[in-house]
Amino acid sequence: MKMMWKLILAGCLLCSLQAEAEIYKWRDEKGVMNYSDVPPQSGPAGTQKIKAATVPNDVPLTRSDAYHQEESASANKKPPESRESAPSAEAEALKAMQERLKGQNCAAARSNYRNYAVGGRMQSVNENGQKEYLSDDQIKEGLARAQQEIDENCPVE
Fold this sequence. Notes:
Helix content is 54%, strand content 11%. The protein has helices at 2-19, 63-77, 85-118, 136-153; strands at residues 23-27, 33-36, 46-48, 123-125, 131-133.
């Protein structure tokens, strides 16, 4: 037991030494800024202590939140346009969003099709939260439904 505590202590000491590593910063002959944990071979280099970045855990960021932030940022960057071109810009944005959604639906449909086509036993979760295995007929129906979704959402190649 004492040996394990000694090993844990030694590991903690080694980790803390790495956390205090220095970062060297210098410009080379071409004027390019370089960063390294090894000092440059020629000339003096400035050192910096780098602190680990912290992420606030106030509100978890979901995928849809990131999308809305991206949309609002792109909307803020656009210069104000005349009233006549605003509806066309909205229509273009709506069309682009529909195309993106159609592409995501296409990828999901192809993934579903592959899952059904592989064969074997498939399971789903019912309303009570219990696993139930799909019958052969249910698998065939799922395969047909996935093929229909591919036909609706994916462009002909």
